[in-house]
Each structure stands twice: as C-alpha cells, then as structure tokens.
Specification:
Length: about 450
C-alpha cells in the first residue's frame, strides 16, 4: 500500500534551500503540497482590530509569490492546494481523505503559526508531525548556547556566532514523488493578484533569484554601508527583505551570493555590513523562538509596561501622513502607496509614534504588519520593541531628533516633496480628551 505525506508551505515559498521539503520528499511514496492563506489581522487584541486587513500591496506580493510556487510545482506535475481561512479543518480533511501518515513544515517562531500547528496535531494524534528548521542561517544545534538562553543584546549574539560555519544552500529537488489522485476538494486555486502593485517588487522565487544575481553582480554592495540609510533610492540597499520575508529567498542563498561577490571583487566594510544585517535578522528569529509570546506583549521582556495611552486621532494622523513632521508624513505616504519603507524611515516613524505621539507601540507594529510587503513577524515586532524600550536595546528608550534626521537624510527636501509630506496641520491633536474639537 502506498504511503502519503503532506508538506505545508507558509512563509517559505520556494524550492531551493528548503531542508524541510527535502526531508518530506523521502518520507512517502506520494506527497501533497498545500499553502496557507494570506493572513488577515483578525486577532482578539484591540491593536489588531485597529490595524485592519492586509494591504493590497502586501496581498499582491504574497499572491504573486504563491502563484510562482504553484507554477514551479506544476512543472513537476504537482498542484499546490490553497487552503481556506479554516486552515486546520482543511488540513484535517486532507489528512483523513488521503490517509496521510506524515506532515512536515518549516519551523516558524510566530505565536499564531505555532498555535495552528498544535491544533492540527491534537486533532490528528495518529499522524507523525515534524518541523524542520529552514528559515535561518544556523541550525539551533549549531548555536553555542541554548536558544532559551539567547544573549540579551545583539552585540553579544554577533560575537558568539559570526565566525561559525554556515552550511551552503541546498539545490532545489530535481524530481518529486507523484501526488495521489486528488478529489475536487483539493483542486488548486490560483488567485489573481489585486490590481495595485508596488513599483519595484514582484513576488516569487524566480524574481528573488534574479534580483539577487543583479545586485551582487554590480558595484552596489561595495558602498552599502555608506548608502543604506537613503530614504528613497533603489540601489542604496539590497532590497532583499520582501523575498526573505515571504521565503522566496533563503538567507543562506543570500549569504552565498554575498560570499561569491567578495571572492570575485574582494571584501570590504560594506560587504561585511550586509552580513551584519543578515545577522540582525538571524538574531530576531532566534529571539522570537526564545521569547515566544513576549515578542507581542506590551511590556516585552521588561518588568513594567511603558507609560502610553491610545489617542485615536493621533494614530489616524500618523497612518495618513498628517502629523506636524514632514519627514514622518512622507515616510507614511510612501508606505501606504508602495508597501515599502527604508530602514531609516521605519526607525524615524517608530520613534515618532512612541515618543512624540506617546502611543502604544503595538498599534504601530500591527499597522506595519498590515502594510509592509516585507513583513516578518520576528523582525517587525523585535524592531518595534527595540524602539519602544521594551526589547533588547541596551540603551533603552531610543529617541530620534526628527528635525536633525530630516536635515541629514533629506537635506534638499526632495523626499518630502516627492511623497507630499507637508501636511496642513499645526499640532498633534485637534480634539481634547472628551473628543471635543480644539479651538483653532
């Protein structure tokens, strides 16, 4: 009797360097591939309901990435089953209908992702479930510390790991076991992407690898450290983050391209800094595995919560680019229109959110989750905690001088002008604590 396995794609929308996938291919005579739906922010927390559903920009990028994966699997004679919002029930139906005996996926640090996995296991106790690490540079058993004892700062983490060997990325499989004969429930659904698209990013593994090759075949990596803080320039930074976040590109593949560039053109401080940024991503991934729910907790890893409140008008003004700070407005307008913002811009708008506007940082993090095409749970929530003073920043509550930052990174005002940052507003509030309009 033939045996059947199931592999669940989520934030790993690729065939290259996918150790969990390679492991699943050897586990049974037949295999089914399914992909989780694009998440909506429908959680029980107030900050999630305030953020709303995912943006068109983010939805399009993920849809393109899933469709590209479906096309790659189709070339191997496989459909990709797109699950409905009832993910656990759909997977349970697949498991029982096709007598699946083994279920595989790549490990994910997100609370919601872990919860769904646990729910599925509890409903199908007769099935073998296995998670394989595939989102990080290092394996957990290669780290020189227990994950639950992760260093309390990035600098300490970096010193411990940056000299460790990193495995080469695995090649995509040359062939796949056949699928079982699928019934109508399991017919693949390839969703059309929404009409809106960001100007420069297109989803999918092929697009990711093409961009990786273009970037590292040029000279941009050699000046990365000097240009990475630019607010609005395509060549100033690697722009790999959307594909890394969706899993269209593995971090090991990105690092291998960097090392190849260094072998051909030589290493310098800028090429090291690209590795440095990959290590920052790595740190947040393992921090999320260690902290788990603390990544989303108001007080983070601190003994007390920050002193903030919720001002609906301030939150709305920040989202709509209607604050008294043109540099902030321009960044937020850019985010809404493209689904992307530079790293420098993200630091500035987060600093404004928690300091000038004195808002609960989780609302800002949830809004980024809605908008960003490169949303990654660990990096997003870890960075917001960092700026809010409840994370791993040893300097505590970090605040940026917005005027000085604008003079440094937009000295001629071109960025503010392009993204229409000069809103007609005089202050941060136009209503009082009882929602009565303030006198102009």
């Amino acid at each position: 009797m033939k045996t059947c396995a199931l592999f669940i794609f989520s934030w790993d929308l690729r065939l290259h360097d996918a150790p969990g996938l390679l492991h699943a291919l050897t586990a049974a005579d037949e295999i089914i591939f399914a992909v989780e739906p694009i998440q909506e922010l429908k959680g029980p927390h107030a900050y999630e309901s305030q953020a709303g559903p995912v943006s068109n920009a983010r939805r399009r990028f993920i849809t393109e990435s899933q469709n590209a994966l479906a096309a790659a699997l189709h070339a191997h004679g496989h459909p990709l089953i797109r699950l409905s919002s009832n993910v656990v029930s759909d997977l349970q139906t697949l498991i029982h209908r096709y007598r699946v005996r083994s279920v595989f996926r790549h490990t994910h640090p997100g609370t919601f992702e872990r919860w769904r996995w646990q729910q599925l296991q509890s409903r199908c106790p007769e099935v073998h479930f296995q998670e394989i690490e595939g989102r990080t540079l290092f394996r957990s058993d290669a780290l020189p510390f227990d994950v639950n004892q992760i260093p309390a700062s990035f600098s300490a983490f970096r010193r411990k790991v940056e000299k460790l060997p990193i495995p080469d990325p695995a090649a995509p499989p040359s062939s796949l076991p056949p699928p079982p004969t699928l019934e109508p429930f399991a017919t693949p659904v390839i969703s059309p992407a929404p009409s809106y698209r960001p100007a420069v990013f297109a989803g999918g593994e092929e697009q990711a690898l093409a961009h990786l090759q273009r970037y590292f075949s040029g000279n941009q990596p050699r000046t990365y450290k000097q240009t990475r803080n630019a607010l609005d320039d395509w060549d100033s930074s690697t722009k790999l983050s959307p594909w890394l976040a969706a899993g269209c590109l593995s971090p090991r593949k990105a690092l291998a391209a960097l090392k190849e560039h260094e072998s051909q053109q030589g290493a310098n401080e800028s090429t090291y800094w690209i590795f440095f940024e990959l290590l920052w991503r790595e740190y947040f991934q393992w921090l999320a595995h260690s902290w788990q729910d603390r990544m989303f907790r108001f007080r983070g890893n601190k003994p007390t919560a920050p002193l903030t409140s919720f001002y609906a008008q301030r939150f709305s003004a920040w989202k709509q680019g209607q604050t008294p700070w043109p540099i902030i407005n321009a960044c937020m307008n850019q985010l809404r229109q493209t689904g992307y913002m530079s790293n420098r811009g993200r630091q500035l708008v987060a600093s404004c959110f928690v300091h000038e506007l004195q808002l609960d940082w989780r609302y800002g993090a949830a809004y980024f989750e809605q908008q960003l095409i490169d949303y990654d749970a660990a990096s997003n929530w870890g960075n917001w905690q960092y700026l809010a003073g409840v994370g791993v920043d040893p300097r505590g509550h970090r605040k940026f001088d917005l005027q000085k930052q604008a003079e440094t990174y937009d000295p001629d005002g071109a960025f503010v002008e392009r993204w229409q940052g000069r809103a007609k507003t005089q202050g941060i509030d136009n209503v009082d604590c009882a929602d009565w309009p303030l006198d102009s």
